């Protein structure tokens, strides 16, 4: 996966440092440097089974994303963004929504995008983990036969995962700039999350609290779109009846970006 992204960026593969320094992403100087030195990458947006909330984050927060969308990239495909029916070649494909296994058109489109895109990004929690579509049982009035919805990584190879319900404009902008800059430290957690398709609020307990990593900051509770996470005595508690399995509480947790496995690897413990 790392080599694939470096190949896309035209970077030489170098040994990773044992303790890499994390640099600030998306600084004004970096944005200007990328815009001047590299041709604009072609970005496509593909909508499958979701609520379109992710594309709203992409298009309606102009104060943050306007320079990115107008000066740094070319949007070449998008059902609501570009007047085009055929899927073109593109450098980065942002795929929103899970894929319905009974929808032949969506399956065909997803596989075609995988063939024509340099990097495929699971854009939002439905594409990354299935989110609330995991609860679908079929029987909808419009398409009663549509009953099985899975994360796109269950069907095609995914390069980066960007969970969120929806992803924030900041994370969208920083991720695209990190791809353009080749900032592997920032992108590594998103590469690690590609196979993480069974999200749940209980991840906070199992992977953060139980590992003595929780600092009680409350970011998980503030990020939860359904208010399923509360704080009790400085630790998160999850209401399973409210949880939609979007995974955003775990992803937004500042300690999940440096889990115990990576801490041991980077420190040589």
Summarize the structure.
This protein has 269 residues and is an alpha/beta fold. 38% of the residues lie in helices and 15% in strands. It has helices at residues 2-9, 28-37, 53-59, 62-72, 104-116, 125-129, 169-181, 184-192, 203-209, 219-223, 248-252, 260-267, and strands at residues 42-47, 74-78, 90-96, 99-100, 117-123, 149-150, 160-162, 229-232, 235-238.
Structure description:
The protein has 269 residues and is an alpha/beta fold. The protein folds into two domains: 2-195, Rossmann fold (3-Layer(aba) Sandwich), CATH 3.40.50.700; 203-267, Alpha-Beta Plaits. The protein has twelve helices and nine strands. It has helices at residues 2-9, 28-37, 53-59, 62-72, 104-116, 125-129, 169-181, 184-192, 203-209, 219-223, 248-252, 260-267; strands spanning 42-47, 74-78, 90-96, 99-100, 117-123, 149-150, 160-162, 229-232, 235-238. A hairpin with a 2-residue loop joins strand 8 (229-232) and strand 9 (235-238). The longest helix has 13 residues, at 104-116. The protein is globular, with a radius of gyration of 19 Å. Residues 11-25 have low confidence and may be disordered.
The rounded Rg comes to 19 Å
How would you name the CATH homologous superfamily of the largest domain?
A: NADH:ubiquinone oxidoreductase-like, 20kDa subunit
Low-confidence stretches: 11-25
The CATH class of the largest domain turns out to be Alpha Beta
Number of domains: 2
Name the beta content range.
5-15%
- How is the CATH topology of the largest domain named? Rossmann fold
Number of helices: 12
The average pLDDT value, as a whole number, equals: 79
CATH architecture annotation of the largest domain? 3-Layer(aba) Sandwich
For the record, give the distance between the C-alpha atoms at the N and C termini, rounded to a whole number.
25 Å
Oligomer: single chain
Shape type? globular
E-strand count? 9
Most strands sheet: 5 strands, parallel
Order of helices and strands: HHEHHEEEHEHEEHHHHEEHH
């Amino acid at each position: 996966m790392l080599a694939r992204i470096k190949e896309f960026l035209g970077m030489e593969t170098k040994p990773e440092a044992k303790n890499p320094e994390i640099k600030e992403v998306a600084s004004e100087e970096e944005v200007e440097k990328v815009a001047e030195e590299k041709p604009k990458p072609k970005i496509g947006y593909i909508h499958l089974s979701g609520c379109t909330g992710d594309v709203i984050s992409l298009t309606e927060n102009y104060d943050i994303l306007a320079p990115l969308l107008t000066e740094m990239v070319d949007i070449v495909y998008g059902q609501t963004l570009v007047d085009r029916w055929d899927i073109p070649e593109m450098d980065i494909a942002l795929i929103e929504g899970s894929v319905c296994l009974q929808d032949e058109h969506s399956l065909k489109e997803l596989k075609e995008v995988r063939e024509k895109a340099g990097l495929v990004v699971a854009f939002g929690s439905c594409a990354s983990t299935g989110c609330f579509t995991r609860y679908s049982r079929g029987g909808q009035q419009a398409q009663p036969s549509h009953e099985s919805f899975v994360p796109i990584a269950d069907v095609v190879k995914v390069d980066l995962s960007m969970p969120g319900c929806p992803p924030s404009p900041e994370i969208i902008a920083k991720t695209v700039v990190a791809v353009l800059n080749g900032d592997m430290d920032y992108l590594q957690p998103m590469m690690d999350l590609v196979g993480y398709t069974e999200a749940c609020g209980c991840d906070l307990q199992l992977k953060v609290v139980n590992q003595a990593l929780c600092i009680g900051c409350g970011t998980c509770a503030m990020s939860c779109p359904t208010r399923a996470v509360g704080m009790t005595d400085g630790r998160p508690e999850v209401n399973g009846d409210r949880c939609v399995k979007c995974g955003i509480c775990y992803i937004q947790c500042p300690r999940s970006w440096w889990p115990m496995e990576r801490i041991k690897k980077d420190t040589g413990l």
